Amino acid sequence: MSKSVDLFSEAKKFIPGGVNSPARAFKAVNNNPIFIERGKGSLIYDVDANEYIDYVGSWGPMILGYNDPIVIEALQRQLMKGTSFGAPTELETTLASMVVDAIDSIDKVRMVNSGTEATMSALRLARGYTGRDKIVKMEGCYHGHGDSLLVEAGSGLTTLGIAGSPGIPDQIANETIVVPYNDLDILENVFKNYGDEIAAVILEPVTGNMGVIAPKVGYLEGLRELTDKYGSLLIFDEVMTGFRLAYGGAQEIYCVEPDLTTLGKIIGGGLPVGAYGGKAEIMDCVAPEGGVYQAGTLSGNPLAMTAGITTLRLLQRANTYDYLEQKAEILEEGFKANIKELDIDATFSRVGSMFTIFFGPGQVKDYKSAQSSNTDAFAIYFNRMLEEGIYLPPSQFEANFISLAHNDRDLDKTIVANYKALKEVKGNILK
Ligand SMILES: *Cc1c(COP(=O)(O)O)cnc(C)c1O
């Protein structure tokens, strides 16, 4: 019996499902979660002293790798001054000004404690600013677990959303309209029917939460035009992509400016932070300047701000995103060569340092095509990678992250493991 198995049984006695966030439970890959002891650079170590090359990166934040010495030292210095005051500190202005400098579409930004809080607050602001109630989201995009956003597509011809979880009132789910990602025609129809009721369209500009899918050429521009035409706000949820795909996020790469942007993950440098920002005219509707209420006891927490500031400063070093791209290209080449040599139905999808291998034939462009992936094949792949010492997100429908700490040796080992795992998939699926 491994210590992880024991700790999981113990955790289940006191925590629902033994975890504080469902994906950690490894259910989708029919396995037990691994309990982590510590991390260093690209590596994590479990309580049984196994070492893994990690591509989860705490689900996105750890772009520098684990336990970066400069971040840790900054945190230690702040720790000695105090962990929380609930009063303004200069650190909040420093991080806010860094976000405003990084992202052209943001004039002002409010710090919160998670990505969920950022998107919930951005929706309230969009509704308060426009005086409209309906929200449009894309099928398969994840924006945290707020009621309005934990909504699935209705069946048949209805576009009004249905609750994505027990506990979400139908009246709230019905205010969210769900459309396919990468499809402007369906969205245009929705606008024709509901245009003057739609407060905002929210999406992951590059998706990570149904696996990595890039926007089609002209898609984001089309969203910008449609929302402008109907007086709705465009919200880019860059909780995952912000400071990940480029320092200025997906909007820097695709040159489309949203009205509001939500951030999280990397701006917290591994501590709990979210943020939402945008045009001053809209952001000034937030209390105490305006009437849209939003608050937080620990918002702008000095330790969290310190981790964020230090992480962003380190990302500002020369060539950061070129280095990430080079590492990602090495993995892409290696994985694609393996897929080709083994003649396996799998698609490697990547944008910058985010990637997913979809086990299925053909290009993945939206939720429906992502869902056609073979999750049994993924489970075999995942478990074999784990045996080979490679720690991946435990679901087909997630993004893998490459960090600045991954070195050539890590990448080579990963490519070799990938070959063995794909071969095992092939052997099992053909049986
Ligand atoms: C992770 C994520 C969220 C939720 O952030 P939490 O900090 O987990 O609440 C929201 N949107 C996107 C795009 C995310 O990737």
UniProtKB/TrEMBL annotation:
Q: Which UniProt keywords apply?
A: Cytoplasm, Isomerase, Porphyrin biosynthesis, Pyridoxal phosphate
Localization annotation = Cytoplasm
Which reactions is this enzyme annotated as catalysing? (S)-4-amino-5-oxopentanoate = 5-aminolevulinate
Which cofactors are named for this entry? Answer: pyridoxal 5'-phosphate
User: What is the originating organism of this protein?
Assistant: Orenia marismortui
| GO terms under biological process | protoporphyrinogen IX biosynthetic process
Subunit annotation: Homodimer.
Assigned EC number: 5.4.3.8
Q: What class of enzyme is it?
A: isomerase
| Pathway(s) this gene product operates in, as recorded in its UniProt entry | Porphyrin-containing compound metabolism; protoporphyrin-IX biosynthesis; 5-aminolevulinate from L-glutamyl-tRNA(Glu): step 2/2
Protein family membership: Belongs to the class-III pyridoxal-phosphate-dependent aminotransferase family. HemL subfamily.
* InterPro entries named in the record: 4pyrrol_synth_GluAld_NH2Trfase (IPR004639), Aminotrans_3 (IPR005814), Aminotrans_3_PPA_site (IPR049704), PyrdxlP-dep_Trfase (IPR015424), PyrdxlP-dep_Trfase_major (IPR015421), PyrdxlP-dep_Trfase_small (IPR015422)
User: What's the protein called, per UniProt?
Assistant: Glutamate-1-semialdehyde 2,1-aminomutase
**A Pfam short name:** Aminotran_3
Record bears the keyword Cytoplasm: yes
Residues forming coiled coils: none
Q: Does the keyword Oxidoreductase apply?
A: no
List the top taxonomic levels of the source.
Answer: Bacteria, Bacillati, Bacillota, Clostridia, Halanaerobiales
PANTHER family (alphabetical): GLUTAMATE-1-SEMIALDEHYDE 2,1-AMINOMUTASE, GLUTAMATE-1-SEMIALDEHYDE 2,1-AMINOMUTASE 1, CHLOROPLASTIC-RELATED
Annotated Gene Ontology cellular component terms: cytoplasm
UniProt xrefs under HAMAP family: HemL_aminotrans_3
